[in-house]
Design goal:
three-stranded antiparallel β-sheet; homodimer; 12 helices; alpha+beta; Beta-Lactamase; Enolase-like, domain 1; DNA-binding; Arc Repressor Mutant, subunit A
Chain lengths: 352, 352
DNA sequence: TTTAGCACTCTGTGTTATTGAGTGCTAACA
DNA sequence: TGTTAGCACTCAATAACACAGAGTGCTAAA
């Protein structure tokens, strides 16, 4: 990135950003001088601020207003603050003890629920909106169990379990003249012959074998067996946005709410950040979704080697309390990924 | 309720309410006269409006403003408009053909998904927020299948299926020194001996029998078997609220968003309305949740005899397009409940 | 190099005047 | 007697204006 700031510029930038985060209004030279006890006078600070503005770290809503950090200013602040390197986290934190309990007794096969309960807490601690995302279909998902259960006279309920802990269910009406036995036989066959085979392989095999079945059988069976797994997303405390001054404009707020109702775009962001690993901070327009550009997204991927299992994130205003959020997310990244690494075999989605 | 309005008063009330729904601003006597071609002059309309105000159907934000309907005014409007009695619905509607397709191939065991896809469409058609609610634990839920699947060396995955189509899963770490065989044996036993027994009965039996098991076994098994089912709620298009003029006040909007993040209160409302049956319209303060009082909730319970399977609702501003929403919900109530009645045995949650 | 001082700029607020929509009342009318 | 035209009155919303205050940029002094 661009050059490094000297000591004095950095302390002014730091104070300006911190002040803006706290007050949510443009910060003037006097405020920086007083609030942060800088040993420079307001006049000096004004000079420094003018320089910082020229270099693009600050802006000016209008002549007689204080300074507001730009995305570049926030970026420099985040990259150079101590909290971004901080690796320790107080064991006494409620989060730490919560994780102790949850991670001890839970399994990565129940990842969505585990992450949900954790991020629910994190959302409450930080007062920002939390996101939990789990990807859809996984490449080498393998069949653990396929059970067809007759329900009543005319219905079949299929339960498909894969080694990632995913459970699919579907109910179908048995077509007129069909015996449930026949379909159940197919199910049993599959269950014993293909246990532990990748779903993709079973799919191909089935398509081949099913040529010999009647159309109606084939359709019913396919309906029971072929599921596509959609990504799962959960949100916590989206209502917080309605309280923040930067979202008092209804159209801005509306745009954000719409982003939250459409998981595809968020999924893409999380996918893109997997390779990066660790804590990603996307400030303002650094993220590609237009509606989300007045926001900052702090997120971490959960991986087992090079297999992506899911991601969690926090969304708040650009004026986010980075010094609180980033250490929390760092800590979460460490604990969760360690837990996954310890529990799952290397590079696997599953416990096998 | 209070008395019946004479012909003229009713036409003025009708025009005022309709006008207010359309314009979202107080409606004056001239507007009523012009927009609705009433044969009375503005002066006469003013007299009638004054009477309606005295009787509590209209209010007055301030002297020189037009009239705004009160909750009582909306209530009278809803109760006496033709659309509330209308029973037919165009077969050509996208909703009708959508239901034709969905209800034909789906089963009430997948109720949550069925209702979700329908209400997603309804939310888009009406531009209001849709809610799908499914109650939690059901009294006489019976066991269909309980399977314990070993995953890897040290984990067990339990899948419990009940006759309502509910599927529970949980993964546990096998305690040190345990053999998965032993626990699986318990599972098998349960599966063959207790299939079709109510969960409550199995629970009691197990608690009795498990006295003889060691503490650790008991705990592990209980962890696998005892789930409590929490109510499920899904929301569609909550972002719409951010666009409506009556919710431009951030604190009002925030209160509503918070209601949507807490399913307990909504669940209670839906539960209370089950007995009433059919289409319930709760206008403004008629619903008991404070944050939701600037809204109207139009909802229908889905029942099989006296068994409640779930509810769906639409939430919008009090100034809702009742003439569009109520017929839709009437139609939905009819189609869905008929579908349930045809598919499920009488007074049952399930297909058995 | 830093800082005090000062003129200047611009938003936000409070004041006032004005406009216009809408009412309530009264008197005329059918 | 019910309906309507006319008119004075009320009050929110808007615009115009002055003014205070916060904050800047520049200059000159320390």
């Amino acid at each position: 990135m661009s050059g490094t700031l000297d000591e004095r510029s950095w302390s002014v930038l730091h104070a300006t950003v911190t002040g803006y985060i706290r007050m949510a209004v443009p910060v003037g030279s006097r405020a920086v001088n007083r609030l942060f006890g800088l040993s420079y006078s307001p006049a000096t600070i004004r000079n420094v601020m003018a320089d910082l503005e020229e270099e693009g770290y600050l802006t000016h809503p209008h002549t007689s207003a204080g300074r507001v950090p730009t995305a570049k200013g926030f970026r420099y602040f985040v990259d150079n603050s101590a909290f971004s390197k901080q690796t320790d986290f107080p064991d006494s934190s409620p989060l730490a003890s919560f994780l102790d309990v949850v991670l001890d007794e839970a399994s990565p096969l129940d990842l969505l629920e585990v992450l949900s309960s954790i991020m629910n807490l994190v959302a409450r601690m930080t007062n920002y909106t939390a996101i939990v995302m789990e990807p859809g279909t996984r490449s080498e998902e393998r069949l653990l169990s396929f059970e067809i259960i007759p329900v009543g006279e005319k219905h079949l309920l299929a339960i498909l379990v894969t080694d990632t802990g995913a459970v699919y269910k579907r109910t179908v009406l048995l077509p007129e003249g069909f015996r449930s036995k026949e379909i159940m036989y197919l199910g049993d066959l599959l269950n014993t012959s293909s246990r532990n085979s990748p779903l993709s392989e079973i799919r191909e095999k089935l398509v081949g074998e099913m040529e010999f079945l009647g159309e109606a059988y084939r359709e019913t069976f396919q309906h029971l067996f072929f599921h596509h797994r959609t990504p799962e997303m959960k949100l916590f405390r989206t209502s917080r946005f309605a309280e923040m001054p930067e979202f008092s404009d209804a159209s801005v707020l509306h745009a954000i709410m719409e982003v939250f109702e459409e998981k595809a775009a968020l999924l893409e962001i999380f996918e893109d950040l997997v390779a990066q690993g660790g804590v990603s901070v996307q400030i303002g327009s650094e993220n590609p979704i237009p509606g989300l550009q007045p926001c900052t997204l702090v997120s971490i991927p959960l991986v087992n080697g090079d297999v992506w299992l899911g991601s969690v994130g926090l969304v708040g205003p650009v004026r986010m309390q980075y010094d609180q959020v980033i250490p929390i997310m760092h800590y979460l990244s460490g604990r969760l990924n360690l837990w996954i690494e310890k529990t799952l075999p290397p590079n696997s989605h599953s416990l096998i």
